[in-house]
Design goal:
The complex is a heterodimer of chains A (183) and B (343). By secondary structure, chain A is mainly alpha-helical. Chain A has ten helices and no strands. In chain B, 41% of the residues are buried. In chain B, the strands form three sheets. In chain B, strands 1, 2, 3, 4, 5, 6 and 7 form a seven-stranded antiparallel β-sheet that branches. Chain B has a four-stranded antiparallel β-sheet with strand order 8-9-13-12. Chain B has a two-stranded antiparallel ribbon with strand order 10-11. Classes of the chains: A mainly alpha (183), B alpha+beta (343).
Chain lengths: 183, 343
């Protein structure tokens, strides 16, 4: 983790100085996290791709002003969250509603194999409250410590801890991980 | 669930994330798990949950991001150069609205659909562009684009005939520099080399301006219409005496970005070598002095030269004397390169 942070800081510094290759390395290292958060936010691959591109454009335009005030991943999560919220508020994209029938199917363990496991995870993810989901994403996708996640979400670290725990409880219950014996 | 279970599982969740937990809390959780099957199962569930794969960005998304970044760099370059240096007269007039070169993006889902539909064709044309700029080997592949993919006007059937016409004449091995340049033309001062002939081309409606060229004839240069290419590789479509043809940008890669040759002279007939933009006095020394200083190298290892007041990522010069296989060809002049734009 610390090594990643150091690598990121070096890449950010070089990218801000005009090294496009360094910026591409950042993009390659973190695009999956950005995309996954956006996908879970919108429930739609096309919207997630648009959001991902917009996130990186904003990051690129703001590199010089970033400095090293925070870990890059903290900043990236903040930008990602804001881009998704802005796209939603502006009406450019809407979140796909959760299908209760699908949730019922998951809860009844009507799935098969590992491929179904990841699909079900995303379906179950949509059943979480937005607050719990973004706290979980901040920690699980972006690797943020609770305090850092809290600074972005505007809540104390203890609240992040509660939200992440609540998300995990809901996910393990919805996915019936006990019954499946793992995915 | 009992209160102890909730507290224990919250502690286990925090420990799973590498968060600091007091030794007292951690010990209490361990002791609780010894006697509680549900909490032991929860601990196992945390690992199972983590093992489930998160959504992964589709292949090509990073490349698309970097193309968008390249567009920003190009815009910045234009702004910086325009602000720092006196403007020169454009080589070719244009009748298109909004004549400033601009990187254009489709919006929303259509962007991705179009990228997908054109992906294979773009790859094919990229290969063509490489062939045009690097080797005279005839192009043998034929690619058919979905008509109306972007312009709704051009039926683009690539002809195999193209390569024999489009391949840049390579310098004979024994000749130090060819007397004649490839079949270049310029659009908004940027240099293009002929690519595939588009057979069965219908009337195009998405005109983006004109190019001034006599093509291969000895007559006076005339204006020919340039059309937006349905591809996103920076090419344009020009109708000439032999039909409608793709013209690929003459590019080189520096710092992971594509840079296109920019001509300062009117390259208004085939066989003319592009020269430096007039704002750069011709160097009087082989090392670029006093106009340029060597600053690095491009992806091919060719030295790049910077000009005072122009950050290298916004443009650089290449010295004459590059091999015929270089994107600059055997140009006897210094050449200037700026981030590639999609017209």
């Amino acid at each position: 983790m610390t090594e990643h942070v150091r690598d990121d800081a070096d890449l950010v510094s070089r990218a801000a100085a005009g090294d496009i290759g360094a910026f591409e390395s950042l993009v390659r290292a973190h695009t999956d996290a950005v995309y996954a958060h956006a996908y879970r936010f919108f429930g739609d691959a096309s919207a997630a791709q648009d959001a991902t591109q917009e996130v990186w454009i904003k990051v690129f335009r703001s590199l010089e002003g970033f400095g090293s005030r925070a870990a890059f991943t903290t900043w990236l999560f903040r930008v990602t969250r804001n881009v998704c919220l802005d796209m939603l508020r502006s009406g450019r994209r809407a979140a796909t509603p959760v299908d209760p029938v699908e949730l019922h199917r998951i809860a009844n363990n009507d799935t098969a194999g590992e491929a179904a496991g990841s699909v079900d995870l995303e379906m179950a993810m949509r059943a979480l409250s937005p607050e719990d989901r973004e706290a979980f994403n901040a920690v699980a996708l972006f690797g943020l410590p609770y305090a850092e996640a809290g600074s972005v979400l505007g809540v104390p670290a203890g609240t992040v801890k509660s939200r992440v725990f609540r998300a995990r409880r809901a996910l393990t219950t919805l996915l019936c991980l006990d019954a499946k014996g793992g995915a | 669930m009992e209160m102890d279970c909730i507290r224990t599982q919250a502690t286990l969740s925090a420990l799973h994330d590498g968060e600091h937990v007091t030794e007292e809390s951690a010990e209490a959780a361990r002791m609780h798990c010894d006697d509680c099957g549900a909490c032991r199962a929860f601990e196992a569930d945390l690992r199972k949950l983590e093992a489930l794969p998160a959504p992964q960005a589709p292949p090509g998304l990073v490349d698309r991001v970097m193309v968008a970044v390249a567009a920003i760099v190009a815009e910045r370059a234009e702004d910086a150069i325009a602000a720092a240096l006196p403007l020169e007269q454009p080589v070719a007039p244009t009748d298109a609205p909004g004549s400033t070169p601009r990187f254009e993006w489709l919006s929303g889902a259509g962007r991705w659909k179009t990228f997908g539909a054109l992906g294979a064709a773009a790859a094919a044309v990229a290969v063509i562009a490489i062939l045009v700029t690097r080797t005279p080997t005839p192009q043998t592949a034929s690619t058919h684009l979905p008509s109306g993919a972007q312009t709704g006007a051009l039926d683009l059937t690539f002809s195999n005939e193209a390569a024999t016409r489009s391949a840049a004449p390579a310098a004979p091995a024994a000749t130090p520099a060819p007397a004649r340049a490839p079949d270049y033309l310029t659009f908004r001062n940027r240099v293009y080399a002929p690519g595939s002939l588009l057979s069965d081309a219908k009337t195009a409606t998405d005109a983006i301006g004109t190019v001034t060229t006599a093509f291969g004839s000895a007559g006076a240069p005339t204006q020919a219409r340039a059309y937006r290419s349905p591809l996103t590789d920076g090419s344009i479509v020009v109708t000439g005496p032999d039909g409608t043809r793709l013209y690929a940008p003459v590019i080189r890669v520096f710092n992971s970005l594509k840079y296109q040759m920019v001509a300062g002279n009117a390259v208004d007939r085939f066989g003319q070598w592009p020269e430096l933009p007039s704002r750069f006095p011709a160097p009087t020394s082989p090392d670029g002095a006093p106009t340029f200083i060597v600053s690095g190298g491009d992806a091919l290892g060719i030295p790049t030269y910077t000009a005072a007041g122009v950050p290298q990522m916004q443009g650089f010069a290449i010295a004459p004397g590059t091999p015929a296989t270089d994107p600059a060809g055997s140009n006897p002049n210094w050449t200037w390169w700026e981030p590639m734009l999609i017209p």
